[in-house]
Amino acid sequence: MEIKNYISQWEERYHSDLTNNILPFWLTNGLDKEHGGVYTCLDRDGKLMDTTKSVWFQGRFGFITAYAYNHIEKNPAWLEASKSCIDFIIHHCTNEDGRMYFEVTADGTPLRMRRYLFSECFAAIAMSEYSIASGKQEYAEKALEVFHTIQHYANTPGLLEPKYLPAMKCQGHSLTMILINTASRLREAIDAPELTKQIDLSLEKLEKYFVHPEYKAILETVGLNGELIDTLNGRVINPGHCIETSWFILEEARYRNWDSHLVDLGTKILDWSWDWGWDEKYGGIINFRDCKNFPPQDYSQDMKFWWPQTETIIATLYAYLATGDEKYIEKHKMISEWTYRHFPDKEYGEWYGYLHRDGTVAQPAKGNIFKGPFHIPRMMMKSYLLCKDIMEKENESKSR
């Protein structure tokens, strides 16, 4: 494979797809010009199916549009969309105690609060990215305030309702991994030592508790000391989450001048998770596996969702940039060709979210409370920038 030509073609495609397809679809169909913020429950053609608003996506789209403004093009419509989502969060989605809701109505009336802290994480990265884009430091300070709220609730026993009753003492991978990305995004906007400290803590917990070499896997739920919980839920491997974790780690390795230990850890997790997730029969990354190879419990266990594919595209490019090992270009080719063959909707734009194992469409809607303008545009932006970095590295190596 002629790597420079291959990477150059993808660099151009990511930029074109982002600016001509994905962002216009959501800016046209999703923005709420009356109340502010974004709707995500859109049918295949962009028609609004439900005015319930996902608070996750107020933060997620607030981040995406500000990140696009900072890294792709100084488009004032993107900056305006980011501010609309963030203002909606501040005015309508935040409880008196600093916690954020999970679902609200179109005008911001609260509908549901969940025990998870992900609404807060997405709001924080949106505020920090908007701070960079707008030059308004008060948004970075607000992001850090939200981050402190996250830490307070995560680290204070009894504040959050436990997932299980006391008979099941456990801890989850999700918050540990997402705090790496949350803290690293905030660190771009504001200098606060607790951010790198949180990243260090999450990395330590990942290695100590969730990385299980005996299964060559990261487990989603483990005991308080990292021990295997030998149940259907305790044996779950989520390849998409693990691969997302791998590129979070590689991004932090790069921040630390390509720290060799983190490069080794990130690529090891990617390799393990690819082996668990890649469907040898049909292609694509499946949803769930059992670390002892029992049948997974989740009914969607062998479906192909949009987001594990996008995380794998980013991770393979990051791994190639970090190591120069061409096996990651081959993996990028495999996952990209499969993804682009099955997910994009050539008639109405954007991507389908939910496919059967064989790649046929399970349902055609473009969004709901969980799918919307985040993983796909993030993949396109990160991958576009990684392709540029790879091209620069390839040119430097040839000029020596």
| Strand order in the largest sheet | 1-2-3
Helix fraction by DSSP (H/I, runs of at least 4): 55-70%
Number of strands: 12
Give the biggest sheet. Answer: 3 strands, antiparallel
By helix and strand content, what is the structural category?
mainly alpha
Uncertain runs are none
- Kindly estimate the percentage of residues that lie in beta strands according to DSSP: 5-15%
Mean pLDDT: 97
SS field, number of helical segments: 12
First and last CA, distance: 21 Å
What does this protein look like?
This protein is mostly helical and 400 residues long. The chain has 12 helices and 12 strands. It has a 3-stranded antiparallel sheet. Strands 10-11-12 form a 3-stranded antiparallel sheet. A two-stranded antiparallel sheet has the order 4-7. Strand 5 and strand 6 (217-218) form a beta hairpin. The two termini are 21 Å apart.
Q: What secondary-structure arrangement, pairings included, does this model have?
A:
Blueprint: H1 3-29, E1 53-54, H2 55-71, H3 76-92, E2 103-104, E3 110-112, H4 118-134, H5 137-155, E4 171-172, H6 173-187, H7 193-210, E5 211-212, E6 217-218, E7 221-222, E8 236-237, H8 239-255, H9 260-277, E9 289-290, E10 304-305, H10 306-323, H11 327-342, E11 354-355, E12 361-363, H12 375-399
Antiparallel strand pairs: 1-2, 2-3, 4-7, 5-6, 8-9, 10-11, 11-12
Helix pairs in contact: 1-12, 2-3, 2-4, 2-12, 3-4, 4-5, 4-6, 6-7, 6-8, 8-9, 8-10, 9-10, 10-11, 10-12
Protein name: N-acylglucosamine 2-epimerase
Keywords: Isomerase
InterPro entries: 6-hairpin_glycosidase_sf, 6hp_glycosidase-like_sf, AGE/CE
